[in-house]
Amino acid sequence: MNHCTLYASVQEHQKILDAIQEIFLDQDIVSSAEGRTVTVSDKKWFSKNTVTFNLMREERDAKDFQPMKKEMFAFFAQIETRHEQVKQKLLLQISALNVAVGIVSNKEINQATLQSILKIAAKVHGIVFLPSGDMLDQSGRLILNPAGESELEDFQVTVSADLIDGHIRPTKLGEERKERSMKLLDEQGIPYIRHLPVIEGDEETVIRSKEEIVQRAIALCLIAVYAGGIAENGEVRKEREFIEEIIQQYGAGTFFTEKERNFLDDPEPAQTNTIQMVWMYECYWVLLWALGYKEELEFPGQICDVSVAIDVLRSAGDYDTFCQHAVVRSKAEILDQADLIYRYDWACVDARIHNRTVAGGLDSGVVMERHRALNWLFRFMGDDWDHVQIHT
To answer: Which InterPro entries match (predicted)?
Structure first.
């Protein structure tokens, strides 16, 4: 191994440069004028070892940084592991990263150099990603690897709220929305933390277009119907032939994401993938509400009425009719629900972390899928459907 990457969530990137200077104090250090590159040299009699640190910052290098962060989030999100608590906290940490330091050595990174890198990570509460896919904490312990293994019973997320949602500018409407949500949580007996940030404000939010929502709703319904059929009878080929007819009926061939298309094309889909796609009924339920096909979005205490959900699309009969009768709800209504589900999800995650029953009768699975759909509706982090982030 001659390279790795250190990731951190820091308000001042200078802290990383200072840490490099401190840890390699006895070696030659050359920094570029703009602070993007730091080269450390250890001169020997007959050789020269160099380690180069290349800094990438989210606010400065957003075009490259954000896709990289989404890919890493997706990479760890798909890992199956018995260390679910550790995984969820790692995903939360990843969602808040704003600095990446690519580290390249001209020779194999030995144990001494790795320990120096970990010391830098410790000074900035960073994590270190190895080419093997292993993610290490600042002590060098394995947080999670592609096989789902971990050396930790728990993982401490060291990210302040202003870094997690630093892109959000608090607004009067957003603060008022947050207060309404917390008042409702009080009435429902559901715990919350007051310092959980506001979500994006009305002034800066752009809701998905009617066509986007309609197409996504149809895709979610059809993928859930298909997955549900497989889960019930295991006849993949028969269900594939059935769903293809409906896809043609609604002209939905291009509505599916890459992940959904892969699932449709898989002759032997994994059970975990099938179950996950069945859960898309809950996302579809939210979009039916957003399109005006449901009067209200009820308390997320139980799964949706699948037969009612399917009947909405079936009764329309084709894409044009389903689209014509849809009326997208106002931005304020969608953001009200998005703020509320954000706080519901925090209660669910907090209960899971502390091994407690979720208070107030919330169904954590329903909450998570509604959170996914609502974040997609108001373009949270600009993510496409396959990469929607739902951190709390």
So the answer is: DUF4272 (IPR025368)
Report percent pLDDT > 70 for the chain. Answer: 95
Structure confidence by residue, pLDDT tens digits, 251-294: 999 999 999 999 999 999 999 999 999 999 999 999 999 999 99
Rounded Cα distance between 29 and 21, Å, is 7
**Distance (Å, whole) CA 152 – CA 168:** 32
CA distance 197 to 302: 27
Whole-angstrom CA distances from 118 to 16, 58, 59, 101, 135 are: 12, 22, 25, 12, 12
User: Longest C-alpha distance within the chain, in Å?
Assistant: 81
Average pLDDT over residues 230-259: 96
Contact between 296 and 336 under an 8 Å Cβ cutoff? The reply is no
Half-sphere CA count of 160, side-chain side, radius 13 A: 6
Mean pLDDT of 358-384: 91
Task: Give 45's pLDDT tier (boundaries 50, 70, 90).
Answer: very low
Strand partners, 136: 128, 142
Domain range for 19 is 3-161
Q: Are 265 and 180 members of one domain?
A: yes
Last residue in a domain, options 161, 192, 216:
161
Same domain, 36 and 61: yes
The C-alpha atoms of residue 58 and residue 64 are separated, in whole angstroms, by 8
| CA–CA distance, 153 with 297 (Å, rounded to integer) | 37
* Same domain for 139 and 176: no
42 strand-pairing partners: 49
Q: At 43, is the pLDDT very low, low, confident or very high (cuts 50, 70, 90)?
A: low
Tell whether 294 and 332 lie within a shared domain.
yes
Give 28-63 as a DSSP string.
EEEE-TTSSEEEEEEE-SS-EEEEEEEEEETTTSHH
**Tokens of residue 56, six digits:** 């990438």
Rounded CA gap, 137 and 135, in Å? 7
Residues 252 and 173 placed together within one structural domain of the fold: yes
Q: Is 101 helix (H, G, I), strand (E, B) or coil?
A: strand
Domain count, the chain: 2
CATH number for position 136:
3.30.310
How far apart are the C-alpha atoms of 62 and 170, rounded to whole Å?
21
CA pseudo-torsion sign 121, 125, 130, 132: positive
